[in-house]
Amino acid sequence: MRVTVLGSGTSTGVPIVGCQCKVCTSADEKNQRHRAAILLEEDGRVLIDTGPDLRYQMLKQQVRSLDAVLFTHFHYDHLDGLPDLRPFTFDNKAELVCYANPQTHEIILSRYPYIRERAVYSNVPHLSLKIFPGNEEDGYEELKIAGMKIQPIRLVHIPKAGVLSTGFVVNRKFGYLTDFKEINAQDEKFLEGLEVLYLGSPIDKPHMSHINHAEGLELIEKYKPARGYIGHLSHQYLHTELLEKWQGVAEPAFDGQQFVFH
Prior knowledge:
It contains 6 helices and 17 strands. The protein is α/β, with parallel strands linked by helices.
């Protein structure tokens, strides 16, 4: 199995338009962070999230086909590149299967109502939007897609607003949790002892809807993966500075980074 980090940045992306800070003006490609997305590959390809940079990300990695799409949550930086899924259905009569939690499922249908209409027009993607099997209360069932076993993980993104998110553990080796403040205690068993645990944490200060860097490092030490990574990073941090600061616990993720599992 191969995992590719398509985007390691927060909602604005890095560089931020108009910003002249040392990160946004850096020539180091590891400081250039597109909106968060992940590509999973084994017998086929599964995409996690469709942010505004999707078209560029697919071209950059030369992705020509997808077997499924998984959504973490409904915020624009993870969703609003959805119309750019259209080329993946040009030559395929079957609809592209997409999975989301119930809250995200509802928002997607309200934002892109043509998915529900299922009309066959050339200018809309032909998608089959499904809810993860199982439920938010008791837990989600494992998905089997493209030769991979994918376990959805229940997360809370914004506790005060009731905004939910979903993480994923793939083949019991790779864990991807982004845009969350809380992890469902019943799902923590899936996170222990992974080969790679990737957490989204934009900043080092307390935040109402994201874990901060210190909390991310604590979770990595708690779940004890062989390797820990932190992405969804803001423009306040140089890659080299974080690499030195987190030495021995975690590393900052970067666009184009790949993990290979045997």
